[in-house]
Write a structure and sequence with these properties.
Elements (H helix, E strand, L loop, with lengths): L4 E7 L5 H6 L3 H6 E7 L4 E3 L4 E3 L2 H8 L4 E2 L6 H8 L5 E5 L7 H4 L6 E5 L7 E2 L2 H7 L4 E8 L9 E8 L6 H25 L14 E2 L15 H10 L6 E5 L2 E11 L10 E4 L4 E4 L4 E8 L6 E2 H7 L17 E2 L10
Parallel strand pairs: 1-2, 1-6, 2-5, 6-7, 8-11
Antiparallel strand pairs: 3-4, 7-9, 9-10, 11-18, 12-13, 13-16, 14-15, 15-16, 16-17
Helix pairs in contact: 6-8
Amino acid sequence: MTAPLRIVFLGSDGIALPLLDWLQTGEGRALGQVVAVYTQPDRPVGRGQKVQANAIKTWALAHGLPVHQPEKLTDETRTELAAYGADVGLVMAYGHILKDAFIATPRLGMLNFHASLLPHYRGASPIQTAVACGEREAGVSFMRIVRQLDAGPVADVERVPVAPDDTAIEVEQKLSAACVPLLARAFPKLIDGTLAFAPQDERAATFCRKLRKEDGVLDFAAPAPVLAAHINGLFPWPACSVEIDGQSVKFGLAEAAEATTTATPGSVVVAGPTTLQIATGAGLLVVHRLQRPGGRMLPASEFLRGFPIEQGRVLPSYALPILVSTKPFPIVRKG
C-alpha cells in the first residue's frame, strides 16, 4: 500500500476547514497527512479590534500540528518548509504571493484551490464578484500554482449552483464543501502520477479585485436584477447601504421583481408590512433584510416596524463600481 502523501497546508480562511477535516478522516488520511500549517499572522478582528487567531490556526492547534505565521516568505521560511520533507503543498486563500523557489520546495510542487471556474474571476474576490455579477453557477478549480495571477493549469473543477436568494455567504459555504469531492477525485491520481493539468484559455480570462467599503453603493437607474445581484454578492462585506434620515442602512438580501412603474428610480414604492420595494431602471428591487447602525440584520417586516420609511421617498444613487475586468486590476498599496 502506498504511504499517504506528506502535505503542508497554506491558508488563512475558514473556507478550507471541510477540506482539512476530510484529510483527518479515514478516507482522506489514507491519501494524505498534513504535517504542518502556514497561515497569516494573528490580526485585529471586529469592532473591538482584538487580536485573534484565524480559523486555520485554531484548527491546526486543535489537531496538534506545527503552525508557522511568517509576515514574509524569506529564504529562511523556505528552508524551514523544506525540513518537513513535504510531497505537496496545498494552498487555499493564503494571502501571500509565492515565489518560484518556494513553489518548487515540495516534491510535487504547490497546488491551489481557487474559488471560481477558471479562467473566470481570477483574483482576490471570486465568490463575491461572481454573485454580484449575477452568475447562476460557481465552482472551485484545483490548479497548479505559477507566478502569474491564478493562471496555472487546471486539473479538475467542482461546480455548484447559485440560487437567486444566495448571498456570498451561502455560495462560500457551498464552495467550501465542494473542495472535498474535488480533492477526493484528484489525490489518487496525484499519488499514482496520472493527474493531468490543462492550460487555461487566456482569451476567456476575467479578473476581480479586492473589495473596498466604497463598493457598497447602489445606482437605482440600473435594472433591478443587477442591483439585487450586487447586494447579495457584497453581503456580508462590504455590504450595500443607502443613507436614510442621516443613517446608513445596510441591505442584506434582495431580489428583483418584474413590474411596470412610472416612479422615479430610487423611489420607495412599498414600505411594509413585509418588504421594502424600490423603483429601478427596470423592475422593482425587493429588499428582504435590512440593518441600521449598531443594530442587527433584520427581516424587512421587523426592521420597518422600528424604522419606518415613507412611501415616495427617493433614495440616493451612486454609480456602480467596476468589479470585473478582462485585465488584472492594478495593485492598490496603502500609504
